[in-house]
Amino acid sequence: MSRRAATLTLASVLVLVLAVVGSVMRVPYVALMPGPTSNTLGTNDKGQPLIRIEGRQTYPDQGHLNFTTVTYRGGPGGRIDLFTALRGWFAGDTAIVPEETIFPKDESPKQVDQENTRAMQDSQQNAEAAALHELGVPVTTRVVVDGVQKGRPADGALKPGDEITALDGAAVSSVSQVTGTMAKRAIGAPVTLAYTRDGKQGKATLKTVADPGGKRAVVGIVLSDQYKFPFKIDISIGDIGGPSAGLMFSLAIVDKLTPGPLTQGRFIAGTGTITPDGKVGPIGGIQQKMIAARRAGATVFLTPKDNCADAAGSRPDGLRLVRADTLHDAVQSLNALTSGKGTVPACTR
Protein backbone atom coordinates (compact mmCIF):
# COMPACT_ATOMS: atom_id res chain seq x y z
CA MET A 1 0.00 0.00 0.00
CA SER A 2 1.35 3.42 -0.94
CA ARG A 3 1.96 6.10 1.66
CA ARG A 4 -0.86 8.19 0.16
CA ALA A 5 -3.33 5.32 0.37
CA ALA A 6 -2.25 4.54 3.94
CA THR A 7 -2.73 8.19 4.94
CA LEU A 8 -6.22 8.30 3.41
CA THR A 9 -7.16 5.04 5.10
CA LEU A 10 -5.95 6.29 8.49
CA ALA A 11 -7.78 9.59 8.02
CA SER A 12 -11.01 7.77 7.10
CA VAL A 13 -10.74 5.57 10.17
CA LEU A 14 -10.16 8.60 12.40
CA VAL A 15 -13.16 10.42 10.89
CA LEU A 16 -15.32 7.33 11.45
CA VAL A 17 -14.15 7.03 15.05
CA LEU A 18 -14.84 10.71 15.68
CA ALA A 19 -18.27 10.38 14.09
CA VAL A 20 -19.16 7.47 16.35
CA VAL A 21 -17.79 9.19 19.45
CA GLY A 22 -19.50 12.47 18.58
CA SER A 23 -22.86 10.80 18.11
CA VAL A 24 -22.80 8.98 21.45
CA MET A 25 -20.87 11.34 23.71
CA ARG A 26 -23.36 13.40 25.73
CA VAL A 27 -22.29 16.87 26.84
CA PRO A 28 -23.64 19.13 29.63
CA TYR A 29 -24.84 21.88 27.30
CA VAL A 30 -28.23 23.10 26.10
CA ALA A 31 -29.06 24.30 22.59
CA LEU A 32 -31.29 27.40 22.52
CA MET A 33 -33.23 27.98 19.30
CA PRO A 34 -35.96 30.35 18.07
CA GLY A 35 -39.33 29.24 19.39
CA PRO A 36 -42.89 29.94 18.31
CA THR A 37 -44.38 33.43 18.47
CA SER A 38 -47.99 34.22 19.35
CA ASN A 39 -50.11 37.25 18.59
CA THR A 40 -51.56 38.57 21.85
CA LEU A 41 -54.32 40.20 19.78
CA GLY A 42 -55.21 36.86 18.16
CA THR A 43 -56.44 33.45 19.25
CA ASN A 44 -54.83 30.48 20.94
CA ASP A 45 -54.54 26.95 19.53
CA LYS A 46 -58.15 26.27 20.60
CA GLY A 47 -59.46 29.16 18.55
CA GLN A 48 -60.24 31.26 21.63
CA PRO A 49 -59.08 34.85 22.12
CA LEU A 50 -55.66 34.75 23.69
CA ILE A 51 -56.71 37.69 25.87
CA ARG A 52 -60.38 38.00 26.80
CA ILE A 53 -61.82 40.92 28.78
CA GLU A 54 -65.28 40.81 30.38
CA GLY A 55 -67.14 43.53 32.28
CA ARG A 56 -65.47 46.47 30.53
CA GLN A 57 -65.92 48.07 27.12
CA THR A 58 -63.35 46.91 24.59
CA TYR A 59 -62.44 48.24 21.16
CA PRO A 60 -61.51 46.62 17.84
CA ASP A 61 -57.82 45.94 17.30
CA GLN A 62 -55.76 44.87 14.32
CA GLY A 63 -52.26 43.87 13.37
CA HIS A 64 -49.87 41.95 15.58
CA LEU A 65 -48.41 42.34 19.05
CA ASN A 66 -46.47 39.08 19.23
CA PHE A 67 -44.63 37.71 22.21
CA THR A 68 -41.65 35.54 21.38
CA THR A 69 -40.20 32.39 22.91
CA VAL A 70 -37.07 30.27 22.93
CA THR A 71 -37.10 26.51 22.60
CA TYR A 72 -34.28 24.26 23.79
CA ARG A 73 -32.76 20.82 23.37
CA GLY A 74 -30.79 19.05 26.06
CA GLY A 75 -30.81 19.12 29.82
CA PRO A 76 -30.56 16.46 32.55
CA GLY A 77 -31.90 13.15 31.34
CA GLY A 78 -31.78 14.19 27.70
CA ARG A 79 -28.38 15.70 27.03
CA ILE A 80 -27.39 16.61 23.49
CA ASP A 81 -24.52 14.81 21.79
CA LEU A 82 -21.20 16.40 20.92
CA PHE A 83 -22.05 16.78 17.23
CA THR A 84 -25.29 18.62 18.02
CA ALA A 85 -23.34 21.01 20.24
CA LEU A 86 -20.72 21.59 17.55
CA ARG A 87 -23.36 22.24 14.89
CA GLY A 88 -25.08 24.68 17.24
CA TRP A 89 -21.88 26.64 17.82
CA PHE A 90 -21.62 27.28 14.08
CA ALA A 91 -25.35 27.83 13.43
CA GLY A 92 -26.48 31.43 13.20
CA ASP A 93 -29.78 30.88 15.00
CA THR A 94 -28.61 28.62 17.85
CA ALA A 95 -26.87 29.35 21.12
CA ILE A 96 -25.07 26.61 23.04
CA VAL A 97 -25.02 27.39 26.76
CA PRO A 98 -23.92 25.46 29.85
CA GLU A 99 -26.63 23.20 31.21
CA GLU A 100 -26.76 25.00 34.56
CA THR A 101 -27.84 28.19 32.75
CA ILE A 102 -31.27 26.58 32.31
CA PHE A 103 -31.18 23.84 34.94
CA PRO A 104 -29.48 24.94 38.21
CA LYS A 105 -27.57 22.09 39.83
CA ASP A 106 -29.64 22.26 43.01
CA GLU A 107 -32.98 21.97 41.16
CA SER A 108 -34.63 19.11 39.29
CA PRO A 109 -36.07 19.57 35.77
CA LYS A 110 -39.54 19.25 37.31
CA GLN A 111 -38.78 22.08 39.72
CA VAL A 112 -37.53 24.24 36.84
CA ASP A 113 -40.75 23.58 34.90
CA GLN A 114 -42.83 24.45 37.95
CA GLU A 115 -40.88 27.69 38.45
CA ASN A 116 -41.36 28.62 34.79
CA THR A 117 -45.09 27.96 35.04
CA ARG A 118 -45.30 30.09 38.16
CA ALA A 119 -43.24 32.84 36.51
CA MET A 120 -45.69 32.94 33.59
CA GLN A 121 -48.65 33.17 35.96
CA ASP A 122 -47.00 36.01 37.88
CA SER A 123 -46.13 37.68 34.58
CA GLN A 124 -49.76 37.63 33.48
CA GLN A 125 -50.95 39.13 36.74
CA ASN A 126 -48.24 41.81 36.65
CA ALA A 127 -49.13 42.57 33.03
CA GLU A 128 -52.78 43.10 33.93
CA ALA A 129 -51.86 45.36 36.85
CA ALA A 130 -49.39 47.34 34.71
CA ALA A 131 -51.93 47.86 31.93
CA LEU A 132 -54.59 49.13 34.32
CA HIS A 133 -51.99 51.33 36.02
CA GLU A 134 -51.14 52.81 32.61
CA LEU A 135 -54.84 53.50 31.98
CA GLY A 136 -55.45 54.99 35.42
CA VAL A 137 -57.82 52.20 36.49
CA PRO A 138 -57.65 51.60 40.28
CA VAL A 139 -56.29 48.21 41.33
CA THR A 140 -56.20 46.88 44.89
CA THR A 141 -53.87 44.22 46.22
CA ARG A 142 -54.23 41.35 48.63
CA VAL A 143 -51.64 39.29 50.49
CA VAL A 144 -51.86 35.57 49.79
CA VAL A 145 -49.99 32.60 51.27
CA ASP A 146 -48.04 30.89 48.50
CA GLY A 147 -46.42 28.22 50.62
CA VAL A 148 -46.02 26.95 54.17
CA GLN A 149 -42.67 25.55 55.32
CA LYS A 150 -42.82 22.20 57.05
CA GLY A 151 -41.87 22.18 60.70
CA ARG A 152 -42.27 25.93 61.06
CA PRO A 153 -44.86 27.61 63.34
CA ALA A 154 -47.33 28.19 60.48
CA ASP A 155 -47.32 24.50 59.50
CA GLY A 156 -50.84 23.22 60.19
CA ALA A 157 -52.21 26.68 61.00
CA LEU A 158 -52.11 28.33 57.59
CA LYS A 159 -52.52 26.94 54.08
CA PRO A 160 -51.54 28.02 50.56
CA GLY A 161 -54.31 30.23 49.22
CA ASP A 162 -55.12 31.85 52.57
CA GLU A 163 -55.50 35.62 52.28
CA ILE A 164 -53.73 37.47 55.10
CA THR A 165 -55.92 40.42 56.06
CA ALA A 166 -54.30 41.72 59.25
CA LEU A 167 -51.20 41.38 61.39
CA ASP A 168 -51.67 41.98 65.12
CA GLY A 169 -54.95 43.74 64.39
CA ALA A 170 -53.56 46.12 61.75
CA ALA A 171 -54.95 45.64 58.24
CA VAL A 172 -52.41 44.73 55.57
CA SER A 173 -52.69 45.01 51.79
CA SER A 174 -49.16 44.25 50.57
CA VAL A 175 -46.35 41.85 51.30
CA SER A 176 -44.05 44.78 52.04
CA GLN A 177 -46.32 45.78 54.93
CA VAL A 178 -46.04 42.33 56.45
CA THR A 179 -42.28 42.02 55.98
CA GLY A 180 -41.77 45.55 57.30
CA THR A 181 -43.60 44.72 60.51
CA MET A 182 -41.92 41.34 60.88
CA ALA A 183 -38.49 42.93 60.48
CA LYS A 184 -39.08 44.77 63.75
CA ARG A 185 -40.31 41.71 65.63
CA ALA A 186 -38.01 40.03 68.16
CA ILE A 187 -37.27 36.36 67.57
CA GLY A 188 -39.58 34.31 69.78
CA ALA A 189 -42.22 37.04 70.07
CA PRO A 190 -45.76 35.98 69.01
CA VAL A 191 -47.70 37.39 66.06
CA THR A 192 -51.39 37.11 65.27
CA LEU A 193 -52.38 36.76 61.63
CA ALA A 194 -55.97 37.22 60.54
CA TYR A 195 -56.85 35.40 57.35
CA THR A 196 -59.66 34.47 55.00
CA ARG A 197 -60.01 30.89 53.77
CA ASP A 198 -62.84 29.78 51.48
CA GLY A 199 -64.82 32.87 52.46
CA LYS A 200 -64.44 32.26 56.19
CA GLN A 201 -62.48 34.39 58.64
CA GLY A 202 -59.84 32.95 60.92
CA LYS A 203 -56.94 33.87 63.19
CA ALA A 204 -53.65 32.19 64.00
CA THR A 205 -51.39 33.29 66.86
CA LEU A 206 -47.90 31.93 66.23
CA LYS A 207 -44.63 32.13 68.12
CA THR A 208 -41.89 33.32 65.79
CA VAL A 209 -38.60 31.49 65.26
CA ALA A 210 -35.30 32.53 63.73
CA ASP A 211 -34.78 32.38 59.98
CA PRO A 212 -31.93 30.15 58.66
CA GLY A 213 -29.53 33.06 59.09
CA GLY A 214 -30.56 33.50 62.70
CA LYS A 215 -31.25 37.21 62.26
CA ARG A 216 -34.96 37.61 61.55
CA ALA A 217 -38.20 36.47 63.16
CA VAL A 218 -40.31 34.28 60.89
CA VAL A 219 -43.29 31.93 61.07
CA GLY A 220 -42.51 29.91 57.93
CA ILE A 221 -44.80 31.25 55.21
CA VAL A 222 -44.11 32.49 51.70
CA LEU A 223 -46.35 35.39 50.67
CA SER A 224 -47.19 37.06 47.38
CA ASP A 225 -49.13 40.13 46.33
CA GLN A 226 -52.18 39.33 44.24
CA TYR A 227 -54.39 41.89 42.59
CA LYS A 228 -58.11 42.57 42.68
CA PHE A 229 -59.21 43.85 39.31
CA PRO A 230 -62.48 45.71 38.75
CA PHE A 231 -63.30 43.46 35.78
CA LYS A 232 -62.19 40.09 34.41
CA ILE A 233 -59.09 39.67 32.25
CA ASP A 234 -58.31 36.14 31.11
CA ILE A 235 -55.05 35.21 29.36
CA SER A 236 -54.95 31.74 27.79
CA ILE A 237 -51.68 30.76 26.12
CA GLY A 238 -51.33 27.06 26.79
CA ASP A 239 -48.15 25.31 27.90
CA ILE A 240 -45.66 28.19 27.82
CA GLY A 241 -43.55 29.21 30.80
CA GLY A 242 -41.38 32.08 31.91
CA PRO A 243 -41.96 35.79 32.58
CA SER A 244 -40.71 37.36 29.33
CA ALA A 245 -44.11 37.94 27.66
CA GLY A 246 -45.21 40.49 30.27
CA LEU A 247 -44.67 43.61 28.17
CA MET A 248 -46.59 42.24 25.19
CA PHE A 249 -49.51 41.11 27.37
CA SER A 250 -49.74 44.60 28.85
CA LEU A 251 -49.69 46.26 25.44
CA ALA A 252 -52.47 44.00 24.17
CA ILE A 253 -54.65 44.80 27.19
CA VAL A 254 -54.06 48.54 26.72
CA ASP A 255 -54.89 48.17 23.03
CA LYS A 256 -58.15 46.36 23.72
CA LEU A 257 -59.27 48.90 26.33
CA THR A 258 -58.57 52.06 24.30
CA PRO A 259 -60.11 53.34 21.05
CA GLY A 260 -58.01 52.98 17.92
CA PRO A 261 -55.50 50.16 17.29
CA LEU A 262 -52.00 50.66 18.66
CA THR A 263 -50.41 48.91 15.70
CA GLN A 264 -52.43 50.39 12.81
CA GLY A 265 -52.04 47.00 11.17
CA ARG A 266 -48.27 46.70 11.67
CA PHE A 267 -46.59 43.43 12.66
CA ILE A 268 -44.92 44.28 15.95
CA ALA A 269 -43.21 41.78 18.22
CA GLY A 270 -41.24 42.13 21.41
CA THR A 271 -40.16 40.78 24.74
CA GLY A 272 -39.56 41.92 28.31
CA THR A 273 -40.68 41.23 31.85
CA ILE A 274 -43.06 43.71 33.43
CA THR A 275 -43.61 44.95 36.98
CA PRO A 276 -47.03 46.00 38.27
CA ASP A 277 -46.03 49.66 37.92
CA GLY A 278 -44.92 49.16 34.32
CA LYS A 279 -41.13 48.81 34.43
CA VAL A 280 -39.73 46.59 31.65
CA GLY A 281 -36.98 44.13 32.61
CA PRO A 282 -34.37 42.14 30.63
CA ILE A 283 -34.78 38.58 29.41
CA GLY A 284 -32.62 35.75 28.07
CA GLY A 285 -32.32 34.47 24.52
CA ILE A 286 -32.70 37.86 22.86
CA GLN A 287 -30.97 36.76 19.62
CA GLN A 288 -33.22 33.72 19.18
CA LYS A 289 -36.34 35.76 19.94
CA MET A 290 -35.45 38.39 17.33
CA ILE A 291 -34.89 35.67 14.73
CA ALA A 292 -38.24 34.09 15.60
CA ALA A 293 -39.98 37.46 15.31
CA ARG A 294 -38.45 38.27 11.93
CA ARG A 295 -39.25 34.83 10.53
CA ALA A 296 -42.86 35.30 11.60
CA GLY A 297 -43.02 38.60 9.70
CA ALA A 298 -42.32 41.26 12.35
CA THR A 299 -40.77 44.55 11.23
CA VAL A 300 -40.56 46.17 14.69
CA PHE A 301 -39.19 44.56 17.84
CA LEU A 302 -39.68 46.08 21.31
CA THR A 303 -36.53 45.46 23.33
CA PRO A 304 -35.76 45.96 27.06
CA LYS A 305 -33.04 48.58 27.46
CA ASP A 306 -30.72 46.14 29.26
CA ASN A 307 -30.88 43.82 26.23
CA CYS A 308 -30.27 46.57 23.69
CA ALA A 309 -26.51 46.13 23.33
CA ASP A 310 -26.77 42.41 22.56
CA ALA A 311 -29.79 42.93 20.33
CA ALA A 312 -28.18 45.68 18.29
CA GLY A 313 -25.15 43.48 17.67
CA SER A 314 -27.17 40.65 16.16
CA ARG A 315 -30.27 42.32 14.69
CA PRO A 316 -31.79 40.45 11.73
CA ASP A 317 -32.14 42.44 8.52
CA GLY A 318 -35.48 44.17 8.19
CA LEU A 319 -36.17 44.32 11.93
CA ARG A 320 -36.30 47.72 13.61
CA LEU A 321 -35.34 47.67 17.28
CA VAL A 322 -37.28 49.99 19.59
CA ARG A 323 -36.08 50.41 23.17
CA ALA A 324 -38.73 49.89 25.84
CA ASP A 325 -37.86 51.14 29.33
CA THR A 326 -41.43 51.15 30.62
CA LEU A 327 -44.89 50.20 29.40
CA HIS A 328 -45.70 53.90 29.03
CA ASP A 329 -42.63 54.39 26.85
CA ALA A 330 -43.66 51.44 24.68
CA VAL A 331 -47.18 52.83 24.21
CA GLN A 332 -45.75 56.25 23.31
CA SER A 333 -43.33 54.67 20.83
CA LEU A 334 -46.10 52.72 19.10
CA ASN A 335 -48.22 55.86 18.88
CA ALA A 336 -45.26 57.71 17.37
CA LEU A 337 -44.64 54.92 14.87
CA THR A 338 -48.22 54.91 13.64
CA SER A 339 -48.70 58.70 13.61
CA GLY A 340 -45.25 59.63 12.35
CA LYS A 341 -45.03 62.22 15.13
CA GLY A 342 -42.73 62.11 18.12
CA THR A 343 -39.51 60.26 18.84
CA VAL A 344 -38.99 56.52 18.82
CA PRO A 345 -35.99 55.45 20.97
CA ALA A 346 -33.74 53.03 19.16
CA CYS A 347 -31.59 50.21 20.55
CA THR A 348 -27.89 50.89 20.17
CA ARG A 349 -24.78 49.11 21.38
From TrEMBL:
Q: Does the keyword Coiled coil apply?
A: no
- Which EC number(s) does the record attach to this protein? 3.4.21.53
**What's its top-level EC category?**
hydrolase
Q: Which GO terms describe its biological process?
A: protein catabolic process; proteolysis
- Locate the active site: S244, K289
Question: Where is the Lon proteolytic domain positioned along the sequence?
Answer: 198-337
Q: Which family does it belong to?
A: Belongs to the peptidase S16 family.
Q: What is this protein called?
A: endopeptidase La
Q: Which organism is it from?
A: Actinomadura mexicana
Name the lineage. Bacteria, Bacillati, Actinomycetota, Actinomycetes, Streptosporangiales
